[in-house]
Design a protein that fits this description.
Elements (H helix, E strand, L loop, with lengths): L1 E5 L6 H12 L3 E3 H11 L2 H11 L6 H12 L8 E4 L5 H13 L6 E6 L2 H9 L1 E4 L6 E3 L18 E2 L6 H15 L1 H7 L4 E5 L4 H12 L6
Parallel strand pairs: 1-3, 1-4, 2-3, 4-8
Antiparallel strand pairs: 5-6, 5-7
Subcellular location: Cytoplasm
Main location: cytoplasm
Keywords: ATP-binding, Cytoplasm, Kinase, Nucleotide biosynthesis, Nucleotide-binding, Transferase
Length: 219
Amino acid sequence: MRIVLVGPPGAGKGTQAAYLAKNLAIPHISTGDLFRANISQGTELGLKAKSYMDAGELVPDEVTIGMAKDRMEQPDAVNGFLLDGFPRNVAQAEALDAMLESESMKLDAVLDLEVPEDEVVKRIAGRRICRNDSAHVFHVTYSAPKTEGVCDACGGELYQRDDDSEETVRKRLEVYHTQTEPIIDYYKAQGLVVTITALGKVDEVTARAMEALRGDKAA
């Protein structure tokens, strides 16, 4: 299957992408991984992306599209892939369509993870990270530490990242609504969108997604 995963920040796209890719035996292709791999390997596209990033500028669509194209042409993606973070806007969606059409391929589904905005803010703004080890992550509501502000694992101080503040989260949501959400209507016109609620436990959402991808549009 060839799938695009969409949803607002905090919808759990990364977590669900990993589970779904494993269940469907297809590679999980995320924009973040593409950038890190190309930059670390010093590819031409990676060097271009780094030059924009170092200058504090947005990486142009054509660079992101080029990275995605290279990754989708690798042997493990012959039988399908799950795209996470790409396409990020309608221009990228159109480029992806053209790219697939040139290879006589097409998308099978666009999985839209739906989460109420207030829940997104609650999920992200409630995160607390250990200063000693960023792998130790807590949540003031869902996985609170035994002692407020103290990491259960090592006793380090827990803090809220600047990116996780409510003000920043709401700005990120505005960007999502303006730039990325329009691709849902773009793909709806092609009959590709399947929308599920991303509320509940991780395994419940995964099961719901698998049912939807098998054709149960009521999932």
